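anyone else get weird line breaks when pasting these?? whatever heres mine. first is seq + C-alpha cells for prot A
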Amino acid sequence: MSSGCGGLAPARWTAHPSVGERLWLEGFRLVVPGFKEPHNWVQALPFMWASATTRHDRARLLFPDIEIHDPGQLPTPHQHIHQFIGAWGKSAFARRPEKITEMVDTVRLAMLGRQSGLVITHQDTEHAFTGIPNTKVLHHGNVAGDDDFRAVEALFVIGGPFAPPGAIAKIASAEARCRVPYATPVRTPCVGLMEAGHGVALERQAYADPRLQAVHAGIYDSGIIQAIGRARGLRRTAANPVDVYLYANLPLPVPIASIDIYRQPSRLERMFLADGVPVNAADMHREYPGKPMFPSEAAAAKARERWGGRAGMQAQVRELAQRAGIAWDVLTWQPKAKGHKGRVRFLPHAQLAAFAAEVIREFGGYVIFQAEPLYRPPVWQEDIDIGGKRDLFLPMSESSRKRPSPRPGRISWAPPRAPPYQGELL
C-alpha cells in the first residue's frame, strides 16, 4: 500500500470490478483492481485502533497517517508474575513426553488451596491438564479477547505460539517487499524487569535480522502477552489478587515478581499428590517403582535420607497439607506376624479407613494401627473409626471373627495456626 518492493497497491477505485479481472505487478507493487485502501474508508470518521499487541509498523501499512499513543506502563499492584526459564516449546514436550506429567504436577501443586485457575498451553498438550480440579484449560490461539477468567486466582502460561523459521522468513519478506534470507533463531541475551526496579539477565530465542525478529515477536511475544491479559491484571484489587506463572523465555513489557530456572516437582511432592507418602523404603519402591521415582529400595532410602528422614519428610508433608487445607494423618502400622516391623505412612485423613482395609486384605490376621493427626484445618471435629494414639487389633482370620470391633471415638483437634500465604508456587 506504500512504495517499495512487493507492496500491495490499489488501482483506480471501481464500485463493481469486473469478474475475473487479473492482478498484475508494476515494479515491486501488486496491483489489485477494485481494492480501496483501508484508511480511505475511515478517512472522514473518528477512528481508534485499541490494541496492546499490534505492531506499530504494521498498523502504519494500513493507516499511514495513524498517530501512535503509548499510555506507558500502567501499575498492576495486585498481579504478580513468576517467570520460569526452561524449554517450553512444542518440540521440547515431544522430545520428553514425561515433561507433560511434570507440568501437570507443577500446576496441581500451585493450585493447592486455590479455588479457580486457568492453564494456557499448546494445543497438543491441552488435554493433559483437563483433569486438574478447579482449573480450566485453553490453548494458544484460542484466548484473544476472552474475559471469562478475570477472577481466577492463578494463571499458568506454558510456552507460546512459535512459528517455524520458514514461515517467519516468508512473512518478513512480504512486509519488507523484498527477499529476507532464511535464518534460525539463536540464544540472545536480554533483561527482565523486576517489580523492585532492577533487571535480571536471561536468554531468549531471537533472530539476528531485525525484520525476522519483528515478525517473531509479533507472534511469540504478542501471544504470551495476550495470554497473560486473560487475568485482567489492571482490574485486580486487594480483594482478588492473581498470581501468573509464566513458563517462557522472553523479557516482558511489565514488571515480574520473580524469575528462576524451572525445578520439577520433587518425588516427595509427587507422592503427596498421589495421596500416600510412605516412610519405609520398601514401601516407597513398591508403590512408586521405576524412573524417575525409586528404581530400588536403596534409591528410596537415599532419597529419604536427603529429605531428613522421617522428621524431615513429616515437616514437608505437613506444609503441603497446610497449603492444601486438607486433613492429613500419621499412620503407624504393623502386621502381627513374624519378621514384620512397624511402618509409618502419611496420608489424607479421608483415606485412612480405605488404606487400613487394603492392608488387612493384603496381610490378613491381626494388624496394629496407630493414627495421629499430622495437620488439621482450623475448626476441626470428626467421627473416626481408627482412633488416634491407640492400637486397634483388626481380626481377619476365621477363628477371630467373634472378637468385638473397637467402638469409634469422637475426637476434636485443637485448631492450629492459620495456613501461610498461598501465593507461592513451590
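and prot B, same format (seq, then C-alpha cells)
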Amino acid sequence: MNQADSAYLINLLRNAGYQETEQLEEAQVIIFNTCSVRQHAEERLFQHLKALSPLKVKKNPIIGLVGCVPALYREKLFGQFPFIDFLAGPESLAEVPLLISRSKEGVKSAVFVSQGTTHFAYHQALKGNLCAFLPIICGCNNFCSYCVVPYVREKEKSRPAEQILAEANEMIRQGIREITLLGQNVNSYRDGEIDFPLILKKVAALPGLLRLGFLTSHPKDISLQLFRVMADSKKIYRHLHLPLQSGSDKILLLMNRRYTINHYLKIIEEARRFIPSLTITSDIIVGFPGETESDFEETLNLIKKVEFDDLFAFKYSDRPKTAAEKLEPKISPQVKEQRLAKLWEVQDAISLRLNQAMVGKESEVLLLSKSYKNPGYLIGKTEKEKKVLVEGPPELVGRLVPVRITSADRQLLYGKPV
C-alpha cells in the first residue's frame, strides 16, 4: 500500500511541475512516505531525519513526512524534529502540493483528513513500468491487538467498482501488464452487490491484462467463491498470501485474529482442492507477549505441515495505541532473535525444496524487466508468482513466454525459454 501511495504521490508532484532527482543535495523538496507497522521502520525513519539536519541548515530544502507515522504521532513530530515543514496522513496525500506551497511561505502545516480531492486517484501508472498496484479498499476494521493500522488508516472504505475498472483499463492502456489489487483486507471489499471475488473476476476479464494478483487476505473473511474465480481464470496468479501470525490458538486469541488453527487449515485444504498448483505464503510474528516455547513449537509444526512457499516473519514490537502494548509477559529480545532464527532454518529448507521441485518443469513466465545484475538475463514471474531469472533477449520483456526451469535456489528459479 505504501508503494501504491508513493506512485500516486510521484505522479501528483510530476503533474504539479516537479521532477525527481537522485541527488539528495539537489532536492528542493524531500518527502518521506512512512510506515508504522513495525518499530524498526520508525527507527530507520528517525535515523534518516537526524542525518538530514546538516543539509537543512546548509540548503534549507522543504522536508515533509507523509503516511502512517504522521497519522500516529501528529504534531508532536514538529517538537521532536523542528526542521520538518509539513505532515500529512495517508488519507491526505492529495494535499501535499498545497502543503509544499505553504512551506515555501514559511508556514508549518499538518493535515490528517483530506479537505479536497480524495487521494484515491491511481489511474496513472508510473511511466516505463509493466506492473502497477491498484488499491480497491483502504483502512481496517479488524483491530488485531498488535496492529496500528486501524488507528492510522481509519475504517474500511471500498472504492466504487466502476472507478476501479476504469483505472485498471487506463493502466492497461498505458502499457501495464500486471496489476495487483490492494487492501489491508481485500476480502472485505464490497460495492453494492459486488464483493471481492466478483471485482477480481471483472478485472481479470479486461483485455490486454496478462497477470492479476491481490494482497492481503484475512483468514476470517476468505470465501470458497474466491478460489473458484482464481481457478477459472488463467490470468490470476496461482498464489495466495494468507497471514497466519501464529500456530497457537492461545496466541491467536490474544492477537484477536478471530479464527482458529483448525479453521486456517481447512481454508488451505479447500484452496488446494480448487487449485492444486497453488503457492501459499504467509506472515508470522514471533515473540508475541505471552508466547511460550510450546506456543512457538506449535508455530513451527504448522509451518512444516502447511509447507509454505515462503514467509514474511518478524519479531514482535509494541505499537502505540494497540491492546498488545499492555499485554504481559514481554518476550526478551534474545529469545525473539533465537526463535526467528529457528523459524528461518525450518522455512529456508522448505522453500529450497519446493523451488528445486520445479527444476525440469515448464512454466508460463511474464517477463517484466532486464536484469541489471545479470547481463543477458530477464526477470519474470511464473504463473505461481515465483520470481525467475530467464536467459533471453530484451525484446521478450512484456510478454508471456514458456520457460523451462533449469535450476533453483532458496530465493530464485532460473530458466531458459522453450
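btw re prot B: The chain has a mean pLDDT of 94. DSSP finds 13 helices and 19 strands in the chain.
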